[in-house]
Design a protein that fits this description.
Blueprint (H helix, E strand, L loop, with lengths): L24 E2 L2 E3 L8 E2 L2 H12 L2 E2 L6 E2 L2 H9 L7 E2 L5 E2 L2 H12 L5
Antiparallel strand pairs: 1-2, 2-3, 4-5, 6-7
Length: 113
């Protein structure tokens, strides 16, 4: 892919989420089946959304990275092909403005007394 490509219509491979709606239903609550996760939900749909954060079914076609949501994978995927654009005064360069802001915040943080 060349720089400046549009990932808006791109589709990413997504694994099936191994979860049935009737699994772990008890007194009106749907419990997460992930090990050591004690969360419960009032609907199977909200539990399914939560479960994606554990299994991260959206796969990057370039590296081993996995994401819970396609929108996050689009942002990640762009990092493979776009040149870094955001530069700090210290000359560090970042591909995302959020990372530059985090860097600046960390550099300017006042030490706690």
């Amino acid at each position: 892919m060349e720089e400046g490509h549009d990932t808006g219509q791109m589709e990413f491979e997504e694994e099936d989420i191994p979860l049935r709606n009737d699994e772990n239903f008890w007194y009106g609550h749907y419990f997460c089946t992930w090990p050591r996760c004690d969360l419960w939900f009032s609907t199977p749909g909200t539990r399914r959304k939560h479960f994606r954060t554990h299994c991260r079914p959206v796969l990057c076609s370039v590296c081993p990275k996995r994401m819970a949501w396609t929108r996050d994978m689009r942002k990640h995927f762009d990092t493979h092909f776009k040149r870094p654009r955001y530069q700090c005064r210290c000359e560090k360069i970042y591909s995302k403005m959020d990372n530059l802001k985090k860097h600046i915040k960390e550099k300017t943080a006042q030490p706690k007394l």
